[in-house]
Amino acid sequence: MEGIPVQRRGNVQRAEWRQKCRQILAQYLRKSVEPAEVRLQPHEDDGYVWIRQPDREHLFTRPLSKHSTSVYMQLCREVGPSIEAIPHPGLERILPEHRSKRIRVSGSILDLTSQISQLQSETEKLANQLSFSEDQTRRERVLRQEAEEKARRLEGELSTARMDMVQLQQENTCLLSVNERITKRMKRSDDQTASYKRKLPFNPPSPQEHPHKRLSLDSPLSWEEEFFANSKGISDRIRASDVDREPLRFHETLLELVYPFNHPVPDAPAQVWFARGETGVYAVKLYKPYTDDEAESQVARLSDPKPSLQKVRHDFSPFALETRAYERIRKLCPTPQQSFFRRYHGTIEIPPSPVRRSSVRTSRRQGIVFDVLTPGLEGRHLHSGRVIGDFAPHAKILHTELAKLDISPLEKRWYLSVLNDRLRMAMSAHTLGILHGDIKPDCFGLPDSPHDIVLHDFSRAYTFTRERPCAMNGIRRLRSFECAVEVERRNIRSCVHEM
Question: Strand ranges (DSSP E) for 307-412?
Fold first, then answer.
């Protein structure tokens, strides 16, 4: 080869690569076409056409025999991965005498197209299965979340039912004890009555002589004796107090409702408003009227003998219940304990037209005026840290429950101090013959304040009067004062433990 000129050696090398390229292209077409018949610019009757990529368009601009060695090398390297052929679109128009040749040439290409179609079909099938699986997984996730939510709700209801059961058992124990004492007193009373009958003719007293006695065959005791049985610390002044007189009226004539403090549900009995008066600002608690329909509905649920509608309003109306409690506090609460309650300024009646200078309209017509509760330092009170004897059992129980928690000694003392303060507030109401009836966390302060301020919201309270009520704290089952006080103390302890 050393004697051959350079130009001739290049021609020989080009011819070798051209022949090699024809063979590789023919092999790509699976030998359906002879190497000598391979074309880069095939005719329609050749049965195939090359797919021209934009960056390889120059490879198909001239016949195969006219290319350079580098192009032959590129074709050999890229045929298959980057350079492909497909059946000619005009296959069906080929004359019959050329069709068998066309079919032979493109047989391998048709096989490849069939495989591609099959793979595409399988891919689509797998995509559908994946979509179905995702939908099913999504549905199962939603069902699982709903089941978990239902389980949590049922667990909460079960916990509440357990607490109610424990409370009812404790109340039942108290009632059994009271019933036993009443039975013993009735027996002594029967013995005394029999003794008197043997000596003198018995003439029962008239109702005018003992207006507060309960003239019933069920019990010889008055409501006062039954309610305060075995109770200590209730003065005769409280027992004889009359809170059903005309309540205190708010002294200012001009009062502007500015905005509501809260937005209760439509059926809520009351709503608290911020109001501006002649000498300052106030919180006004407005109540929905207690209608005759509501009173008649309560009468239908009460046992015989049926009370009057006036009696039902007296015992069930939230406005009447709260007014009665604050009137008792205003008249009889000692000065050192007045800071345990909201400052009460009296009641108001809103006329059908809006309040003067106020653009606010409301369907609530009766209200009670208080000072505005503030969550800042000026609204907090510090009370004695001494644990009163009656509170010791509850403090001990809370201390035992706190010992199970991972909290510091300082936090434990704080919980016990909160319990002590709340029990002192409730005891101040109890010594006035008032049962709050709706102990919950936010009746000691404001929702946005972590500190206790005062005991408020007496809209379900029972304030003792000598007339037997048809309901106490919204419940038709009457309880003794001692039993009801113990229930409220347990509720306070539960609220502190859940803080």
Answer: 344-349, 366-370
